[in-house]
Amino acid sequence: MAHAQVGDAPRTTTAFDLASQPPPPRIQAGTAKPPRTAPTFRAVLRHRSCGRLLIASVAGRMALGMVPVALILTAQRDGHSLATAGLLAALYGLCPALGLPLLGRLADQRGLPLPCHLGAALVTTALGCLALAGTSHLPLAAVCVVLAGAGCPPLEGALRSLWPTVLPDAAHVRTAYTLDSSTQEIVYVAGPALAVATATCLSPAAALALAAALTLAGSLTFATARPARTWRAVPRPRDPLSVLRPAAMRPLLIALVFLGSTVGALDVAAIAVAGRQGASWLAGALPAAFSAAGLLGGVLFARFQPATAPRPRHLLWLAAVFAAGWLPLLAPLPAPAVLTLTLLPGAMFVPLLTVASLTVTALAPPGTSTEAVGWMSSAIRLGVAGGTALAGPLGGHFTLPLTAAAVCTLLLTPRPAPAAASAAA
C-alpha cells in the first residue's frame, strides 16, 4: 500500500493527499485539547447521542448475524437439503456487498435518513414475506433473500460518519472506532445464538420476523436521532468511482478481502478440527473464542492505542502479528490447545479492523465517507464468502487463514511513492 498517514480524525471533508499538503483539522471541536491518555469506551458513550447511535446501529445490524442461521433452519423445515439451505444463506451473505456501497453513496448525496428508511423498508418487507411464505417456492425465496441482503441499511458507514460530529476530539473518535469494531463481534456472536433460541422456542419463521423487527427498530431509532437528521456530507466529486481513485485505497480494499477470508475459513476449519478430534463442541467454541478474544483485544487496544493517529506501520505491524498468530495452529494439537491458540489472532482482529477503518475513511475523497465504509464492508463480506467456499475443498486446514492473513500483510506493506523512488535512484 502506498504511504498514507491517517489524519487526526477521519472525515471526508478533506482529501487524503499527504504528499502535497498536511491534512487540515478534521474535528470541529473548538479549542478542545486531546486527552493525555486514550479515552475509555465509557468516556465516548457519555457524549451526546453516542449511546443511542451505537445501540441502534448494533440492533439494526443484528439481522446480518441472525438471518443466515434462520434461513437454514427455515429451508430445512420446508424440506430442502442442507446444500440448498446453505446456498440461500450464502446468497444473503453476498448481497450486502452489492447494496451497502450504493446505499452509502445515497447517504452521502441525500443525507442519512433516506437510505436508512429505504433499507429498513426493503429488509422488513422481504423478511416478512419469508416468515409468512417460507422457502417452499425457491425462486420467490431467492428474490426475498436478495432484497433482504441488498437492502441492509448502511448503519456502519453512517455511524462512522457521525462520530466526528458528536465527539470533541480525534482521540475520542479513534476510541469510538475501536468501540464500533468491537461491537461488530456482538452481531456475529449474539445474532446466531438469538436466531437459534427463537427458532427453538417458537419457530424459524419467528426468528426471521424478529430479525426484521430489529432492523426496523434499530434503523428508525438511528435515523431519527438529531445528529443523523442534521448531518450532511460536503459536495462529492462527479466521478461515480471517485472513492476508489486514491492510489492506496485499492490495495487496502483488496487486503480487506483477504482479511475477511480468514474469518470465513475459520468457521469451516472449526468444523473440520472438531470432526478430526471427535470434539463436536469445538465447532461452535472456536469461532466464539475468536470473537470473544476480539472483544478483549478491542478493549485493550482502546486503552493502549497510540496517542497520535495510526500510521501505515501500525497497520502493517498489526497485520503481521495477526498473520503470525495462525502459525502455531498448523501443528497437530489437542482440542483445548487449538482453542487457546485461536485467541491470539482473535485478539488482533479488532485492532487491525479498527486501524483499517480509520485508514479507509481518511483515504476517502470529500463527501464519500459512508460509501467508503460500504466498500470496506463489501470487501470483508466477499472475503468471508470466498474463505468459506475455499476452505471446504481444501479440507478445512488452518493453512488457508494463514495464507490469507499473509497476503493481507503483503498488501499492506508501504511502498515508496514514485517521486521518492526517483530521488533515491
Note down, in words, how this protein is organized:
It is a single chain. By secondary structure, the chain is mainly alpha-helical. The protein has 19 helices and no strands. The model is unreliable at 1-32 and 418-425 (pLDDT under 50).
Count the beta strands: 0
Q: What share of the residues does DSSP label as strand, in percent?
A: under 5%
The outline comes out as globular
In terms of structural class, how would the helical and strand content be classed?
mainly alpha
Q: What is the radius of gyration computed over CA atoms, rounded to a whole number of angstroms?
A: 21 Å
Counted by DSSP, the helix tally is 19
Order of helices and strands: HHHHHHHHHHHHHHHHHHH
N-to-C span: 20 Å
Mean pLDDT: 81
**Proportion in helices:** over 70%
Low-confidence stretches: 1-32, 418-425
The largest sheet, given as strand count, sense and whether it forms a barrel, is:
none
